[in-house]
Protein backbone atom coordinates (compact mmCIF):
# COMPACT_ATOMS: atom_id res chain seq x y z
CA UNK A 1 0.00 0.00 0.00
CA UNK A 2 0.88 3.70 -0.20
CA UNK A 3 2.55 5.27 2.79
CA UNK A 4 1.78 8.69 4.31
CA UNK A 5 5.09 10.10 3.14
CA UNK A 6 4.34 9.08 -0.44
CA UNK A 7 0.92 10.82 -0.31
CA UNK A 8 2.43 14.05 1.03
CA UNK A 9 5.15 14.02 -1.63
CA UNK A 10 2.61 13.49 -4.43
CA UNK A 11 0.43 16.30 -3.05
CA UNK A 12 3.35 18.69 -2.98
CA UNK A 13 4.24 17.85 -6.60
CA UNK A 14 0.64 18.40 -7.71
CA UNK A 15 0.33 21.77 -5.95
CA UNK A 16 3.52 22.95 -7.63
CA UNK A 17 1.87 22.56 -11.03
CA UNK A 18 -1.16 24.67 -10.09
CA UNK A 19 -1.32 28.44 -10.65
CA UNK A 20 -3.31 30.77 -8.38
CA UNK A 21 -6.77 31.84 -9.60
CA UNK A 22 -6.95 35.10 -11.50
CA UNK A 23 -8.02 38.06 -9.29
CA UNK A 24 -11.64 39.18 -9.39
CA UNK A 25 -12.63 42.71 -10.40
CA UNK A 26 -13.70 43.47 -6.83
CA UNK A 27 -10.66 41.92 -5.19
CA UNK A 28 -8.38 44.35 -3.35
CA UNK A 29 -4.63 44.23 -2.95
CA UNK A 30 -2.92 44.49 0.44
CA UNK A 31 -0.23 47.14 0.04
CA UNK A 32 1.73 46.93 3.30
CA UNK A 33 4.01 49.83 2.38
CA UNK A 34 1.05 52.13 1.65
CA UNK A 35 -0.59 51.14 4.95
CA UNK A 36 2.59 51.97 6.86
CA UNK A 37 2.92 55.31 5.05
CA UNK A 38 -0.70 56.28 5.79
CA UNK A 39 -0.36 55.26 9.44
CA UNK A 40 2.83 57.29 9.82
CA UNK A 41 1.17 60.38 8.31
CA UNK A 42 -1.83 60.00 10.62
CA UNK A 43 0.38 59.56 13.69
CA UNK A 44 2.34 62.70 12.79
CA UNK A 45 -0.88 64.70 12.41
CA UNK A 46 -2.34 63.31 15.65
CA UNK A 47 0.89 64.12 17.49
CA UNK A 48 0.65 67.77 16.41
CA UNK A 49 -3.02 67.98 17.35
CA UNK A 50 -2.44 66.29 20.71
CA UNK A 51 0.43 68.63 21.62
CA UNK A 52 -1.68 71.67 20.70
CA UNK A 53 -4.52 70.41 22.90
CA UNK A 54 -1.99 70.05 25.73
CA UNK A 55 -0.88 73.62 25.06
CA UNK A 56 -4.43 74.89 25.58
CA UNK A 57 -4.84 72.79 28.71
CA UNK A 58 -1.48 74.05 30.01
CA UNK A 59 -2.50 77.68 29.46
CA UNK A 60 -5.73 76.97 31.32
CA UNK A 61 -3.98 75.35 34.27
CA UNK A 62 -1.26 78.00 34.46
CA UNK A 63 -3.86 80.78 34.45
CA UNK A 64 -5.60 79.49 37.56
CA UNK A 65 -2.55 78.23 39.47
CA UNK A 66 -0.08 81.05 39.13
CA UNK A 67 0.55 83.10 42.27
CA UNK A 68 2.02 86.58 42.77
CA UNK A 69 5.79 86.51 42.45
CA UNK A 70 5.88 82.86 41.39
CA UNK A 71 8.14 81.94 38.45
CA UNK A 72 6.47 81.06 35.16
CA UNK A 73 6.00 77.38 34.40
CA UNK A 74 7.97 76.92 31.18
CA UNK A 75 7.30 73.20 30.74
CA UNK A 76 4.11 72.00 32.44
CA UNK A 77 4.46 68.40 33.49
CA UNK A 78 1.94 66.25 31.69
CA UNK A 79 2.08 62.52 32.33
CA UNK A 80 -0.11 59.49 31.73
CA UNK A 81 -0.97 56.52 33.88
CA UNK A 82 -2.85 53.34 33.20
CA UNK A 83 -5.95 52.59 35.26
CA UNK A 84 -7.58 49.19 35.33
CA UNK A 85 -10.87 49.21 33.44
CA UNK A 86 -12.48 45.84 32.64
CA UNK A 87 -14.98 47.57 30.33
CA UNK A 88 -12.18 48.83 28.08
CA UNK A 89 -11.05 46.57 25.19
CA UNK A 90 -7.42 46.63 26.40
CA UNK A 91 -8.44 46.03 30.03
CA UNK A 92 -7.24 49.48 31.07
CA UNK A 93 -7.66 53.13 30.18
CA UNK A 94 -5.13 55.94 30.00
CA UNK A 95 -5.56 58.94 32.34
CA UNK A 96 -3.85 62.28 31.69
CA UNK A 97 -2.37 64.10 34.70
CA UNK A 98 -0.93 67.58 35.20
CA UNK A 99 1.62 67.82 38.01
CA UNK A 100 0.27 64.56 39.39
CA UNK A 101 -3.40 65.60 39.39
CA UNK A 102 -6.00 64.12 36.99
CA UNK A 103 -7.07 66.51 34.22
CA UNK A 104 -10.56 66.18 32.68
CA UNK A 105 -9.92 66.35 28.95
CA UNK A 106 -12.16 67.64 26.14
CA UNK A 107 -13.66 65.19 23.67
CA UNK A 108 -11.03 65.87 21.02
CA UNK A 109 -8.21 64.94 23.44
CA UNK A 110 -10.05 61.78 24.45
CA UNK A 111 -10.43 60.80 20.78
CA UNK A 112 -6.75 61.46 20.07
CA UNK A 113 -5.64 59.54 23.16
CA UNK A 114 -7.70 56.50 22.16
CA UNK A 115 -6.35 56.52 18.60
CA UNK A 116 -2.70 56.93 19.65
CA UNK A 117 -2.91 54.17 22.26
CA UNK A 118 -4.49 51.81 19.72
CA UNK A 119 -1.56 52.42 17.35
CA UNK A 120 1.36 52.58 19.79
CA UNK A 121 0.05 50.94 22.96
CA UNK A 122 0.85 54.05 25.03
CA UNK A 123 1.34 57.82 24.83
CA UNK A 124 5.07 58.37 24.12
CA UNK A 125 6.90 60.96 26.22
CA UNK A 126 7.51 63.24 23.22
CA UNK A 127 3.73 63.52 22.74
CA UNK A 128 3.37 64.92 26.28
CA UNK A 129 5.31 68.13 25.60
CA UNK A 130 2.88 70.99 24.83
CA UNK A 131 3.36 72.72 21.47
CA UNK A 132 5.51 75.84 21.38
CA UNK A 133 4.46 79.34 20.33
CA UNK A 134 5.61 79.10 16.72
CA UNK A 135 4.46 75.59 15.90
CA UNK A 136 1.88 74.87 13.22
CA UNK A 137 -1.61 74.27 14.60
CA UNK A 138 -3.69 72.05 12.28
CA UNK A 139 -6.90 73.13 14.00
CA UNK A 140 -6.48 76.68 12.71
CA UNK A 141 -6.93 75.50 9.14
CA UNK A 142 -10.09 73.52 9.72
CA UNK A 143 -13.58 74.82 9.46
CA UNK A 144 -14.86 75.05 13.01
CA UNK A 145 -18.15 73.41 13.83
CA UNK A 146 -20.08 75.53 16.27
CA UNK A 147 -21.13 72.99 18.83
CA UNK A 148 -22.25 74.60 22.12
CA UNK A 149 -21.42 71.38 23.94
CA UNK A 150 -17.77 71.49 22.80
CA UNK A 151 -16.20 74.80 23.80
CA UNK A 152 -12.59 73.72 23.39
CA UNK A 153 -12.37 74.34 19.64
CA UNK A 154 -10.26 77.34 18.64
CA UNK A 155 -11.69 80.65 19.87
CA UNK A 156 -15.27 79.42 19.79
CA UNK A 157 -15.44 79.39 23.58
CA UNK A 158 -15.94 83.19 23.51
CA UNK A 159 -18.23 83.44 20.49
CA UNK A 160 -21.79 84.18 21.54
CA UNK A 161 -20.97 83.84 25.23
CA UNK A 162 -21.50 86.26 28.12
CA UNK A 163 -18.10 87.21 29.55
CA UNK A 164 -17.77 87.90 33.28
CA UNK A 165 -14.93 88.97 35.52
CA UNK A 166 -13.69 86.71 38.31
CA UNK A 167 -12.20 87.93 41.58
CA UNK A 168 -8.63 86.80 42.38
CA UNK A 169 -8.22 87.35 46.12
CA UNK A 170 -4.48 86.66 45.92
CA UNK A 171 -3.87 89.64 43.64
CA UNK A 172 -6.83 91.63 44.98
CA UNK A 173 -8.14 92.42 41.52
CA UNK A 174 -10.46 90.98 38.87
CA UNK A 175 -9.50 88.69 36.04
CA UNK A 176 -11.15 90.57 33.18
CA UNK A 177 -13.67 88.68 31.00
CA UNK A 178 -12.43 85.47 32.59
CA UNK A 179 -15.54 83.28 32.48
CA UNK A 180 -17.39 82.43 29.25
CA UNK A 181 -21.04 81.83 30.16
CA UNK A 182 -23.76 80.32 27.98
CA UNK A 183 -27.45 79.84 28.58
CA UNK A 184 -28.79 76.42 27.64
CA UNK A 185 -32.18 74.73 27.75
CA UNK A 186 -32.88 71.81 30.05
CA UNK A 187 -33.92 68.64 28.25
CA UNK A 188 -37.52 67.93 29.35
CA UNK A 189 -37.98 65.01 31.73
CA UNK A 190 -40.74 62.50 32.18
CA UNK A 191 -44.12 63.87 33.37
CA UNK A 192 -44.40 60.99 35.84
CA UNK A 193 -42.07 62.80 38.26
CA UNK A 194 -44.44 65.77 38.49
CA UNK A 195 -47.47 63.55 39.09
CA UNK A 196 -45.61 61.46 41.67
CA UNK A 197 -44.55 64.60 43.56
CA UNK A 198 -48.11 65.96 43.64
CA UNK A 199 -49.35 62.63 44.99
CA UNK A 200 -46.56 62.45 47.58
CA UNK A 201 -47.06 66.00 48.91
CA UNK A 202 -50.74 66.56 48.09
CA UNK A 203 -51.81 67.47 51.64
CA UNK A 204 -48.77 69.65 52.23
CA UNK A 205 -49.38 71.58 48.99
CA UNK A 206 -52.96 72.36 50.09
CA UNK A 207 -51.60 73.69 53.39
CA UNK A 208 -49.02 75.84 51.59
CA UNK A 209 -51.62 77.29 49.25
CA UNK A 210 -53.78 78.39 52.18
CA UNK A 211 -50.75 79.95 53.87
CA UNK A 212 -49.69 81.78 50.73
CA UNK A 213 -53.25 82.97 50.06
CA UNK A 214 -53.23 84.55 53.51
CA UNK A 215 -49.94 86.26 52.66
CA UNK A 216 -51.46 87.62 49.46
CA UNK A 217 -54.47 89.10 51.27
CA UNK A 218 -52.48 90.26 54.29
CA UNK A 219 -52.92 93.81 55.61
CA UNK A 220 -49.85 95.61 56.91
CA UNK A 221 -49.76 97.86 59.95
CA UNK A 222 -48.44 101.31 59.09
CA UNK A 223 -47.14 103.21 62.11
CA UNK A 224 -46.45 106.94 62.69
CA UNK A 225 -49.20 108.13 60.33
CA UNK A 226 -50.81 111.59 60.20
CA UNK A 227 -54.24 109.94 60.40
CA UNK A 228 -55.42 106.44 61.21
CA UNK A 229 -57.76 104.11 63.09
CA UNK A 230 -55.77 103.89 66.34
CA UNK A 231 -53.23 105.85 68.31
CA UNK A 232 -49.62 104.77 67.85
CA UNK A 233 -48.59 104.49 71.51
CA UNK A 234 -44.86 104.46 70.76
CA UNK A 235 -45.13 107.60 68.62
CA UNK A 236 -47.31 109.32 71.26
CA UNK A 237 -44.87 108.62 74.10
CA UNK A 238 -41.98 109.91 72.01
CA UNK A 239 -43.94 113.05 71.02
CA UNK A 240 -44.88 113.83 74.65
CA UNK A 241 -41.25 113.45 75.68
CA UNK A 242 -40.21 115.86 72.93
CA UNK A 243 -42.90 118.33 74.03
CA UNK A 244 -41.71 118.31 77.65
CA UNK A 245 -38.21 118.81 76.36
CA UNK A 246 -39.29 121.95 74.57
CA UNK A 247 -39.24 120.45 71.09
CA UNK A 248 -42.07 120.61 68.60
CA UNK A 249 -44.58 117.80 69.00
CA UNK A 250 -44.91 115.53 65.91
CA UNK A 251 -48.32 115.11 64.29
CA UNK A 252 -47.58 111.50 63.21
CA UNK A 253 -49.35 109.87 66.15
CA UNK A 254 -51.63 107.31 64.49
CA UNK A 255 -51.48 103.84 63.02
CA UNK A 256 -53.65 102.16 60.42
CA UNK A 257 -53.98 98.91 58.48
CA UNK A 258 -53.14 99.11 54.80
CA UNK A 259 -53.32 96.47 52.10
CA UNK A 260 -50.16 96.76 50.01
CA UNK A 261 -49.63 95.12 46.66
CA UNK A 262 -46.71 92.68 46.65
CA UNK A 263 -43.94 93.81 44.32
CA UNK A 264 -41.37 91.03 44.54
CA UNK A 265 -39.15 89.31 41.96
CA UNK A 266 -37.34 86.14 43.01
CA UNK A 267 -34.76 84.13 41.10
CA UNK A 268 -33.95 80.58 42.21
CA UNK A 269 -30.38 79.49 41.45
CA UNK A 270 -30.25 75.68 41.50
CA UNK A 271 -27.01 73.73 41.93
CA UNK A 272 -26.76 71.20 39.08
CA UNK A 273 -23.23 69.98 39.86
CA UNK A 274 -22.33 66.31 39.77
CA UNK A 275 -22.40 66.09 43.57
CA UNK A 276 -26.20 66.50 43.57
CA UNK A 277 -26.64 63.09 41.97
CA UNK A 278 -29.22 60.83 43.65
CA UNK A 279 -31.39 61.91 46.59
CA UNK A 280 -30.21 65.53 46.47
CA UNK A 281 -31.27 65.97 42.85
CA UNK A 282 -34.65 64.42 43.58
CA UNK A 283 -35.15 66.68 46.62
CA UNK A 284 -34.25 69.78 44.58
CA UNK A 285 -36.78 68.92 41.88
CA UNK A 286 -39.51 68.18 44.44
CA UNK A 287 -38.78 71.50 46.20
CA UNK A 288 -39.11 73.44 42.94
CA UNK A 289 -42.42 71.78 42.06
CA UNK A 290 -43.83 72.57 45.52
CA UNK A 291 -42.62 76.15 45.26
CA UNK A 292 -43.99 76.69 41.77
CA UNK A 293 -47.39 75.24 42.69
CA UNK A 294 -47.72 77.58 45.66
CA UNK A 295 -46.13 80.68 44.11
CA UNK A 296 -48.79 80.63 41.42
CA UNK A 297 -51.27 81.24 44.23
CA UNK A 298 -49.25 84.12 45.63
CA UNK A 299 -48.67 85.89 42.33
CA UNK A 300 -45.00 86.79 42.88
CA UNK A 301 -42.82 86.98 39.79
CA UNK A 302 -40.19 84.26 39.82
CA UNK A 303 -37.63 82.52 37.62
CA UNK A 304 -35.67 79.28 37.98
CA UNK A 305 -32.20 78.69 36.57
CA UNK A 306 -29.71 75.89 37.07
CA UNK A 307 -25.94 76.31 37.00
CA UNK A 308 -22.84 74.18 36.55
CA UNK A 309 -19.41 74.49 34.98
CA UNK A 310 -16.12 72.91 34.08
CA UNK A 311 -13.35 75.52 34.25
CA UNK A 312 -13.78 79.09 33.08
CA UNK A 313 -14.55 78.34 29.43
CA UNK A 314 -17.52 76.09 30.09
CA UNK A 315 -19.76 77.98 32.49
CA UNK A 316 -23.37 77.01 31.90
CA UNK A 317 -26.70 78.49 32.96
CA UNK A 318 -29.71 76.23 32.38
CA UNK A 319 -33.07 77.89 31.66
CA UNK A 320 -35.82 76.15 33.62
CA UNK A 321 -38.33 79.02 33.93
CA UNK A 322 -37.72 82.61 32.88
CA UNK A 323 -39.56 85.60 34.36
CA UNK A 324 -41.60 85.95 31.17
CA UNK A 325 -42.80 82.33 31.07
CA UNK A 326 -45.97 81.03 32.63
CA UNK A 327 -45.90 77.92 34.77
CA UNK A 328 -47.22 75.11 32.61
CA UNK A 329 -46.42 71.69 31.21
CA UNK A 330 -43.17 72.84 29.56
CA UNK A 331 -41.77 74.27 32.80
CA UNK A 332 -42.87 71.20 34.76
CA UNK A 333 -41.09 68.98 32.23
CA UNK A 334 -37.90 71.05 32.56
CA UNK A 335 -38.01 70.78 36.35
CA UNK A 336 -38.40 67.02 35.98
CA UNK A 337 -35.45 67.04 33.55
CA UNK A 338 -32.93 68.66 35.92
CA UNK A 339 -29.89 66.35 35.97
CA UNK A 340 -26.44 66.61 37.60
CA UNK A 341 -23.75 68.08 35.33
CA UNK A 342 -20.17 69.07 36.24
CA UNK A 343 -18.82 71.31 39.03
CA UNK A 344 -20.01 74.08 41.39
CA UNK A 345 -18.44 77.27 40.04
CA UNK A 346 -20.75 79.82 41.70
CA UNK A 347 -19.37 83.30 41.01
CA UNK A 348 -20.35 83.47 37.34
CA UNK A 349 -23.87 82.18 38.11
CA UNK A 350 -24.47 84.86 40.76
CA UNK A 351 -23.23 87.57 38.41
CA UNK A 352 -25.31 86.38 35.46
CA UNK A 353 -28.53 85.94 37.43
CA UNK A 354 -27.99 89.29 39.15
CA UNK A 355 -27.83 90.79 35.67
CA UNK A 356 -31.17 89.17 34.83
CA UNK A 357 -32.74 90.33 38.12
CA UNK A 358 -31.53 93.89 37.56
CA UNK A 359 -33.62 94.04 34.39
CA UNK A 360 -36.81 93.29 36.37
CA UNK A 361 -38.81 96.21 37.74
CA UNK A 362 -39.59 95.27 41.34
CA UNK A 363 -39.43 96.88 44.75
CA UNK A 364 -37.77 93.78 46.22
CA UNK A 365 -35.42 91.47 44.29
CA UNK A 366 -34.23 88.23 45.89
CA UNK A 367 -31.70 85.64 44.68
CA UNK A 368 -32.14 82.27 46.45
CA UNK A 369 -29.50 79.58 45.97
CA UNK A 370 -30.23 75.86 46.45
CA UNK A 371 -26.92 74.05 46.86
CA UNK A 372 -25.33 71.01 48.46
CA UNK A 373 -21.81 72.30 49.02
CA UNK A 374 -19.13 74.94 48.74
CA UNK A 375 -17.84 76.47 45.47
CA UNK A 376 -15.66 74.00 43.60
CA UNK A 377 -14.23 73.33 40.14
CA UNK A 378 -11.59 71.01 38.78
CA UNK A 379 -9.02 73.71 37.93
CA UNK A 380 -8.23 75.69 41.08
CA UNK A 381 -11.65 77.14 41.83
CA UNK A 382 -11.78 75.48 45.18
CA UNK A 383 -10.91 76.29 48.74
CA UNK A 384 -10.31 79.95 49.50
CA UNK A 385 -10.18 81.06 45.85
CA UNK A 386 -13.71 79.84 45.07
CA UNK A 387 -15.12 81.08 48.38
CA UNK A 388 -13.65 84.57 47.93
CA UNK A 389 -14.87 84.93 44.33
CA UNK A 390 -18.37 83.83 45.38
CA UNK A 391 -18.32 86.26 48.30
CA UNK A 392 -17.27 89.09 45.98
CA UNK A 393 -20.08 88.23 43.54
CA UNK A 394 -22.57 88.37 46.43
CA UNK A 395 -21.22 91.77 47.48
CA UNK A 396 -21.73 92.99 43.90
CA UNK A 397 -25.32 91.70 44.00
CA UNK A 398 -26.08 93.52 47.27
CA UNK A 399 -24.66 96.75 45.88
CA UNK A 400 -27.13 96.38 43.00
CA UNK A 401 -30.04 96.13 45.46
CA UNK A 402 -30.45 92.34 45.33
CA UNK A 403 -30.94 90.30 48.49
CA UNK A 404 -29.02 86.98 48.26
CA UNK A 405 -29.96 83.99 50.39
CA UNK A 406 -28.65 80.41 50.45
CA UNK A 407 -30.37 77.15 51.37
CA UNK A 408 -27.88 74.32 51.72
CA UNK A 409 -27.69 70.74 52.97
CA UNK A 410 -23.90 70.78 53.41
CA UNK A 411 -23.10 69.86 57.03
CA UNK A 412 -19.80 71.74 56.79
CA UNK A 413 -21.55 74.93 55.62
CA UNK A 414 -21.08 76.69 58.97
CA UNK A 415 -17.36 76.84 58.19
CA UNK A 416 -17.77 79.04 55.11
CA UNK A 417 -21.39 80.25 54.56
CA UNK A 418 -21.32 83.00 57.25
CA UNK A 419 -18.25 84.44 55.52
CA UNK A 420 -19.88 84.31 52.08
CA UNK A 421 -23.51 85.21 52.78
CA UNK A 422 -23.42 86.74 56.24
CA UNK A 423 -24.67 85.25 59.53
CA UNK A 424 -28.39 85.76 58.79
CA UNK A 425 -28.57 85.08 55.05
CA UNK A 426 -28.51 81.30 54.90
CA UNK A 427 -30.30 78.22 56.21
CA UNK A 428 -28.66 74.86 56.85
CA UNK A 429 -30.94 71.84 56.42
CA UNK A 430 -29.57 68.78 58.19
CA UNK A 431 -31.42 66.12 56.15
CA UNK A 432 -31.99 65.93 52.40
CA UNK A 433 -35.55 64.61 52.78
CA UNK A 434 -36.53 67.80 54.67
CA UNK A 435 -35.56 70.08 51.78
CA UNK A 436 -38.94 70.09 49.96
CA UNK A 437 -40.76 70.77 53.24
CA UNK A 438 -38.46 73.61 54.30
CA UNK A 439 -37.93 75.61 51.12
CA UNK A 440 -41.47 76.98 50.89
CA UNK A 441 -41.47 77.95 54.57
CA UNK A 442 -38.15 79.75 54.14
CA UNK A 443 -39.55 81.62 51.14
CA UNK A 444 -42.59 82.70 53.18
CA UNK A 445 -40.36 84.09 55.93
CA UNK A 446 -38.09 85.88 53.46
CA UNK A 447 -40.92 87.70 51.68
CA UNK A 448 -43.09 88.82 54.60
- Total domain count: 3
Beta-strand content estimate: 15-25%
Radius of gyration: 33 Å
What is the string of helix and strand elements? HHEEEHEEHHEEHEEHEEHHEHEHEH
Distance between the termini: 113 Å
Q: Can you tell me the CATH superfamily of the largest domain? A: von Willebrand factor, type A domain
Q: What does this 3D model show about the protein?
A:
- With 448 residues, the chain is α/β, with parallel strands linked by helices.
- The chain has 3 domains: 35-63 and 73-140, no CATH class; 192-217 and 261-446, Rossmann fold, CATH 3.40.50.410; 221-258, no CATH class.
- 38% of the residues lie in helices and 20% in strands.
- It is built from 12 helices and 14 strands.
- An 8-stranded mixed beta sheet has the order 4-5-11-10-9-12-13-14, sandwiched between helices. The chain has a 3-stranded antiparallel beta sheet with strand order 1-2-3, with helices on one face.
- α5 runs parallel beside α7 and α9 runs parallel beside α10 (384-399).
- The longest helix has 34 residues, at 32-65.
Task: Describe the structure concisely.
This protein is an alpha/beta fold and 448 residues long.
Amino acid sequence: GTTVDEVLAATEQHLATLSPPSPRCFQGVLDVAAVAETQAARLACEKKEFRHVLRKLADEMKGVREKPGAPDIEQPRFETRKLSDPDHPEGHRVELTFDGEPVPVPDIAHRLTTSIVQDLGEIPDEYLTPAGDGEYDPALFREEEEDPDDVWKGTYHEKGAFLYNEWDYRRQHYRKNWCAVREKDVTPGEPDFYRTTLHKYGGFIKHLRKTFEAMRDEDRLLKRQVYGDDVDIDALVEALADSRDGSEMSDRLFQRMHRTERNIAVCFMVDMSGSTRGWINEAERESLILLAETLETLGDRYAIYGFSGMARKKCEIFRIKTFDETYGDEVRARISGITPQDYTRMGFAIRHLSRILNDIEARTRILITLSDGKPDDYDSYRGEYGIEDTRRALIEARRAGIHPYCITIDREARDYLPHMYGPAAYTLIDEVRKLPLKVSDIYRRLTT
